[in-house]
């Protein structure tokens, strides 16, 4: 994709945790024991997955907490959480009290080390920072359930800035009948790229969704900077934008307009005789 004549490459999403890849119990901490329960289930494609479910809709004053294991942030400043879940339609439940919900809360807690275990955890809202109340776009009824029709909701939320070594996620149920099918935690990077005869490194996005992170470029062999120092900005979506400055081939070396010819090759070379050679296993200009 090009925007304003500038080539945009696919962003990098680095996964920190993905429950869909779990081959054993997730081992998250639930409180009280009568709340969230870990079970083996199936997704909409009939793949085996580990899920957490809760359905205490006939009992009032629910306050069920589910705490993940410690997640190392790996230098990320802003974290994204993708949640896939199903929720039962309260109106389809007979004789259900008015306390039935179709939402749940997402929280996080920053820390430098593992501090929560099954014997010691935080179960009030005080230590946590609330990310959002998560609502279902679609809920299912008994008819859907009987027909094996799975109405899966997918919601993504982000939070930051983060400064500690890692964090916990916490899910609070207060009266829903739901299954948390999967949770994927990730952060975004702008990919390494060659643009205007300069190499730009893989760059972490900033702490806010509107952040712009400056990356300095390095001219490719036999090229040099002209005008102002060359740089790009990495935006919060993991896309490069606002190119400033450029490199050009040094005197004695010429270049064709081959960026369009080889837009997805990793590196271009300025060579004598006016030929640009794409990056291969052997880097260098012919003698």
UniProtKB/TrEMBL annotation:
Membrane topology reported for the UniProt record = Single-pass membrane protein
The protein's UniProt keywords, in alphabetical order, are: ATP-binding, Glycoprotein, Kinase, Membrane, Nucleotide-binding, Receptor, Signal, Transferase, Transmembrane, Transmembrane helix, Tyrosine-protein kinase
Quote the SMART domains the UniProt record gives: EPH_lbd
**Pfam family membership, one:** Ephrin_CRD
Where the record annotates domain Eph LBD, the positions are: 13-195
Q: Where in the cell is it found?
A: Membrane
Q: Which GO terms describe its cellular component?
A: dendrite; plasma membrane
Q: Which domain of life is it from?
A: Eukaryota
**EC?**
2.7.10.1
Q: Does the keyword Cytoplasm apply?
A: no
Q: Which Gene Ontology BP annotations are present?
A: axon guidance
Q: Which residues form the signal peptide?
A: 1-24
* Molecular function in Gene Ontology: ATP binding; transmembrane-ephrin receptor activity
Q: What is this protein called?
A: receptor protein-tyrosine kinase
Q: What organism, scientifically named, is this protein from?
A: Ursus maritimus (Polar bear)
Q: Gene that codes for this?
A: EPHB1
């Amino acid at each position: 994709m090009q925007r304003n004549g500038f080539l945009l490459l696919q962003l990098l999403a680095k996964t920190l945790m993905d429950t869909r890849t779990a081959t054993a119990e997730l081992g998250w901490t639930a409180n009280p024991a009568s709340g969230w329960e870990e079970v083996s289930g199936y997704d909409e494609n009939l793949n085996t997955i580990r899920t957490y479910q809760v359905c205490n809709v006939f009992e009032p004053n629910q306050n069920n907490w589910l705490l993940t294991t410690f997640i190392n942030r790996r230098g990320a400043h802003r974290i994204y959480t993708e949640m896939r879940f199903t929720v039962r339609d309260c109106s389809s439940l007979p004789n259900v009290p008015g306390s039935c919900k179709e939402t749940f809360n997402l929280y996080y807690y920053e820390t430098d080390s593992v501090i929560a275990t099954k014997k010691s955890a935080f179960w009030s809202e005080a230590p946590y920072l609330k990310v959002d109340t998560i609502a279902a776009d679609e809920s299912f009824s008994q008819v859907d359930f009987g027909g094996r029709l799975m109405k899966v909701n997918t919601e993504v939320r982000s939070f930051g800035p983060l400064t500690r070594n890692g964090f916990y996620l916490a899910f609070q149920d207060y009266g829903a009948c739901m299954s948390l099918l999967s949770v994927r935690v990730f952060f975004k990077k702008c990919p390494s790229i060659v643009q205007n005869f300069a190499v730009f490194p893989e760059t972490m996005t900033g702490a806010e969704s509107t952040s712009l992170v400056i990356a300095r470029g390095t001219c490719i062999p036999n090229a040099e900077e002209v005008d102002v120092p060359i740089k790009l900005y990495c935006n919060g979506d993991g896309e490069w934008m606002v190119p400033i400055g450029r490199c050009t081939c040094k005197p004695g070396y010429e270049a064709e307009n081959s960026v369009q010819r080889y837009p997805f090759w990793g590196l271009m070379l300025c060579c004598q005789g006016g030929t640009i050679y794409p990056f291969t296993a052997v880097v260098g200009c012919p003698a």
